[in-house]
Specification:
alpha/beta, nine-stranded mixed sheet, 9 strands
Length: 364
C-alpha cells in the first residue's frame, strides 16, 4: 500500500529533533511496503560537486538506512535541483516552510539569517584542507548556541557542513611579492574584498559569470577564486598567472533537513540522517580536493603559469591586513551576537587539528 506524504506526516505525534538524538515511533498503521516521497532541493545544479554528493551519496545512504529500520520505509526522492524549487538565498525558507524536506542551504547567500556562519570568510590564510575547515566550523557550532539558534529559527537541522576548496590568485601579470599588487584592480566579491585591504590593490566587485569578460576587457587585472570553478570557465585564458597564495578553504553552507520532516519520521531516522551526513562529508572533502587538484593541473597543461607564493610573503600579506575578525566581531557584538566567541572557537578548531596560522588573529 502506498500513502501520501501528507497522511504519513499527519500520522505521528511530535517528538524530539536530531539535536536531542531522539525520534518518535512510526504509526501502527504503517506497513513495510509503504513509501514516503520526500523533496530534496538545492539552488545549484547537480553538475556542482556539493550537489552531486548530495544526490549520489547522502540520499542513497539515508534511503538505505530507512529501508533497514525495524519498521522499514521506502523513500522516493523528488529531486528539485538548480533552483527549480529553492532559489539561492531562499533555500532555508523552502525547508522551514515544508516545501522541501532535505537539501543544501548556502549560508554564504543567506548572511542575514546566518550572520555567525560567515566566520571563515573573516579569517583568511588558514588551510586548504576542506575537511579541516568544515570540522572547525562544526567545532564552533557545537560550542556556540546562537549558531545553532540560527538553524532553529530557520526550522531546519544541519547534517553536514560544506567548505569549498582554497582560494588562490589568478592574474594577468606575475606575482612574486605582495608589492606587485599595488594599484592593480582585483576581482574579489563580498567579504573577500577585505583580503586586499592594506595591500594597495583595488577590490572590484564581480562574480563567476562576469570574471572572464572583466579580465579580458581590462576591467580587472586579477581575481581571487578557487580552482574548481576557474577551470570550467577558462579563466586561465585571460589570467594565465596562477599564484598559490593559499587563502584557505571556505565554509559556504550545510546540508540540512527540515525540522518538521525530522520530527515526524520514524524511530531511527535521526541516526540515519546523521550517518548519511557523515558519509556526505567524507566523500565531498575527498572528491572536491581531487577536483581542485585536477583543475589546477588542467590549467597548467593548457598554458597557465603556476607558482607557489613565498611563505614569508604570505605571512607579510596576512600581517598587512587590518584586524578583519576583530572588526567583524565588534560589528556583530554591537548587535548582541557573540561573534568573538565564534572566532575563538573557529580558531581553536583549526589549531586542534594542527593548523599553523601566519598571524595571531586573537591579538588583533
Amino acid at each position: 500500500m502506498r500513502i501520501s506524504r501528507r497522511r504519513l506526516l499527519e500520522g505521528g505525534a511530535a517528538g524530539a529533533l536530531l539535536a536531542a538524538g531522539a525520534t518518535i515511533g512510526w504509526p501502527r498503521a504503517a506497513l513495510a511496503d509503504e513509501k514516503l516521497r520526500l523533496t530534496v532541493t538545492a539552488g545549484h545544479p547537480v553538475t556542482l560537486n556539493w550537489v552531486r554528493c548530495l544526490d549520489e551519496v547522502l540520499l542513497p545512504e539515508f534511503a538505505s538506512a530507512m529501508a533497514a529500520l525495524p519498521r522499514p520505509v521506502q523513500i522516493e526522492w523528488n529531486k528539485a535541483y538548480g533552483g527549480t524549487v529553492a532559489k539561492l538565498g531562499a533555500e532555508s525558507d523552502a525547508l522551514g516552510s515544508g516545501i522541501s524536506d532535505l537539501g543544501i542551504v548556502a549560508t554564504i547567500f543567506e548572511a542575514g539569517k546566518f550572520p555567525l556562519q560567515q566566520v571563515s570568510m573573516q579569517v583568511p590564510f588558514t588551510t586548504n584542507d576542506i575537511g579541516v575547515v568544515s570540522k572547525a566550523v562544526a567545532h564552533a557550532v557545537d560550542r556556540i548556541e546562537p549558531m545553532n539558534a540560527a538553524w532553529k529559527r530557520a526550522k531546519c537541522v544541519p547534517l553536514s557542513h560544506v567548505s569549498v576548496d582554497g582560494y588562490q590568485l589568478m592574474t594577468t601579470f606575475p606575482v612574486r611579492s605582495v608589492d606587485d599588487l599595488a594599484g592593480k584592480k582585483i576581482l574579489a566579491p563580498g567579504p573577500i574584498a577585505n583580503w586586499l585591504k592594506g595591500t594597495g590593490a583595488i577590490a572590484v566587485a564581480g562574480n563567476l559569470n562576469t570574471y572572464y569578460n572583466d579580465l579580458q576587457t581590462g576591467l580587472a587585472a586579477g581575481v581571487i577564486v578557487s580552482m574548481t570553478p576557474a577551470w570550467p570557465v577558462k579563466l586561465h585564458e585571460v589570467a594565465p598567472h596562477i599564484t598559490l597564495v593559499n587563502f584557505g578553504a571556505q565554509y559556504t553552507g550545510s546540508v540540512a533537513i527540515s525540522e518538521s520532516t525530522l520530527r515526524r519520521l520514524p524511530k531511527g531516522a535521526a541516526d540515519a540522517a546523521r550517518l548519511a551526513g557523515q558519509a556526505y562529508a567524507a566523500d565531498f572533502a575527498t572528491t572536491q580536493t581531487a577536483l581542485a587538484r585536477s583543475a589546477l593541473e588542467n590549467m597548467a597543461r593548457a598554458g597557465a603559469k603556476v607558482a607557489e607564493f613565498p611563505e614569508p610573503e604570505r605571512q607579510r600579506w596576512a600581517t598587512m591586513l587590518p584586524d578583519l575578525p576583530g572588526q567583524w566581531s565588534r560589528e556583530l557584538e554591537s548587535r548582541g551576537m557573540p561573534a568573538k566567541a565564534v572566532v575563538d572557537a573557529f580558531l581553536e578548531g583549526l589549531e586542534q587539528q594542527g593548523v599553523a596560522l601566519p598571524r595571531n588573529w586573537r591579538a588583533g
